[in-house]
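hiii so um. not sure if this is the right channel but i have a protein structure encoded as tokens and i wanna go backwards to a sequence. like what aa goes where. can anyone help
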């Protein structure tokens, strides 16, 4: 007989209620699992849809569209269809009808003639059979006044017509426009670089003379010698300035010889100088290859050129440069302060009310509105520290401030304060994750506390520190409100880095992509034209933040492989 079979089998105890009835277990993990999974899916879907909307509208912004001409009771209109919608018209009795009518937003340009850039055209307003796509409708992108739409009627050289047919006019335009633009770029370089160097040299000499005047007095012998030297240098610089101005005027006279005459849809002739035309193309005669070429040329211009037409056209290179420089400076400032503060709190400070109060203050700083940091940065960095620096080192420039106003340096310092709690918290968590046994082993080998921190703790905490830096850069690069007070401006074509001594000018104001988006969306006089640029600039800002984060992630992975992997 099997002894195991004789033993009574034990049954699991049954849970019962107070009345004695068996209890029914209703707790399950599945509902909360499905709920959290659905919430995560919804969040990812919303983020994906938002990014998809931005990407789609950003990518199609520069694609050339065909030009349409329509006849309405108010006159003829010609332009590009930017968007369309349907609405329910209202009858004369002020009742809303049930039928839907399409209307299209036509970018008609020609602002100097019409006073507006866009017109809404309803299908009910269009004269029957009047909607056409003219073969020789030309889209002109200009330095000022926005786009111009018309048909070519004349090409003039020295105010004499050399072509009158649309095809001949367009051939003449293609022949001369590239060399005219080359001369315009040469003129721009002379105006920006050469004259800029002359003005910078003259300003340096003036400041030296002013410094001697403040130090020795206007009646002293050193001042009289410096004044004579300044007069001689000023005379030489004035000769150089006149030479550059003569060269600029020569280029202007040469470019003024070439003009093109376009006729609008209303029949008005307009003469346009070729030097003012950035790009022109016959929209309805373009092949797919031509459209791709124009699309890529617009992207290159957007990434490498300066803004024009109230920032609604042109490029955003100064904003790209300012955003990247400010973010990198912010990272260089916040990293040592954040790591040192976390090291003290985690490794040196004794637990107590003071340390708890400091940690509470750090956590509360993470919730302070960013505009408060902007006000603090303006008051402390610009008006206090910057004003003191001006008094000590730039007294000759006063009352014009140098560091006593907004600039890329103070903007970086302000955002460093803004992101400091993120770096401190992430670094503390990384330090706490280092096993205590590694510290004890280091102490057992005779290492001091600082040697243990420097050689054991910090290397293995570096991946966590990089995580905090990535989060700080992602937040700092997208902040706008503090920058509006401490340095970001609407237009600053002069970069913080140039060829003039001392080559790096951290006191200068700068452009920022986030502020540029705000300016396009809320401060532009041509909001409809600016709307596509808002999506494109937003897409570019997201791409820059992504690249900076990917660089940080790459560095973090290499640090993790080097230090964390060496433990095992």
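sure thing!! here u go:
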């Amino acid at each position: 007989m099997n002894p195991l079979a004789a033993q009574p089998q034990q049954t699991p105890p049954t849970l019962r209620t107070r009345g004695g009835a068996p209890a029914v277990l209703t707790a399950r993990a599945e509902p909360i699992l499905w709920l959290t999974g659905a919430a995560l899916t919804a969040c990812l879907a919303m983020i994906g849809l938002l990014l998809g909307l931005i990407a789609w509208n950003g990518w199609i912004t520069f694609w050339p569209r065909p030009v349409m001409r329509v006849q309405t009771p108010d006159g003829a209109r010609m332009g590009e269809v930017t968007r369309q919608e349907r609405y329910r018209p209202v009858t004369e009795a002020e009742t809303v009808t049930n039928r839907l009518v399409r209307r299209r937003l036509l970018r008609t340009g020609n602002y100097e003639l019409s006073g507006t850039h866009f017109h809404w055209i309803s299908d009910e307003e269009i004269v029957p059979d009047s909607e056409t796509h003219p073969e020789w409708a030309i889209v002109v992108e200009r330095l000022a006044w926005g786009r111009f739409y018309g048909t070519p009627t004349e090409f003039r050289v020295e105010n004499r017509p050399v072509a009158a047919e649309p095809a001949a006019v367009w051939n003449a335009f293609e022949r001369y426009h590239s060399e005219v633009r080359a001369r315009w770029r040469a003129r721009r370089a002379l105006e920006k670089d050469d004259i800029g160097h002359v003005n910078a040299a003259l300003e340096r000499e003036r400041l030296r003379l002013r410094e001697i005047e403040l130090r020795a007095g206007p009646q002293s012998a050193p001042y009289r010698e410096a004044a004579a030297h300044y007069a001689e240098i000023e005379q030489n610089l004035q000769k150089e300035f006149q030479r550059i101005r003569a060269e600029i005027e020569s280029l202007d006279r040469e470019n003024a010889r070439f003009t093109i005459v376009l006729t609008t849809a209303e029949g008005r002739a307009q003469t346009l100088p070729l030097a003012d035309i950035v790009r022109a193309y016959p929209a309805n005669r373009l092949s797919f290859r031509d459209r791709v070429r124009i699309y890529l040329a617009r992207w290159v211009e957007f990434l490498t050129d300066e803004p024009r037409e109230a920032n609604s056209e042109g490029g955003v290179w100064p904003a790209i440069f300012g955003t990247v420089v400010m973010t990198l400076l912010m990272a260089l400032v916040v990293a040592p302060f954040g790591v040192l503060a976390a090291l003290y709190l985690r490794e040196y400070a004794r637990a107590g009310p003071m340390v708890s109060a400091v940690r509470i203050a750090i956590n509360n700083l993470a919730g302070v509105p960013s505009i408060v940091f902007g006000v603090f940065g303006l008051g402390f960095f610009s008006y206090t520290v910057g004003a003191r620096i001006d008094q000590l080192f730039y007294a000759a420039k006063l009352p014009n401030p140098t560091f006593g106003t907004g600039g890329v340096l103070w903007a970086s310092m302000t955002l460093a304060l803004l992101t400091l709690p993120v770096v401190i918290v992430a670094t503390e968590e990384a330090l706490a994750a280092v096993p205590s046994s590694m510290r004890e082993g280091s102490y057992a080998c005779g290492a001091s506390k600082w040697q243990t921190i420097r050689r054991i703790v910090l290397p293995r905490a570096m991946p966590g520190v990089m995580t905090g830096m990535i989060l700080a850069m992602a937040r700092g690069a997208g902040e706008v409100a503090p920058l509006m007070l401490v340095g970001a401006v609407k237009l600053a074509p002069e970069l913080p880095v140039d060829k003039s001594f001392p080559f790096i000018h951290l006191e200068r104001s700068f452009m920022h992509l986030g502020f540029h988006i705000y300016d396009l969306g809320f401060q532009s006089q041509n909001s409809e034209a600016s709307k596509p640029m808002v999506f494109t600039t937003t897409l570019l800002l997201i791409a820059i933040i992504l690249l900076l984060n990917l660089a940080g992630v790459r560095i973090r992975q290499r640090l993790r492989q080097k230090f964390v992997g060496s433990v095992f």
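oh and The two ends are 55 Å apart (CA to CA).
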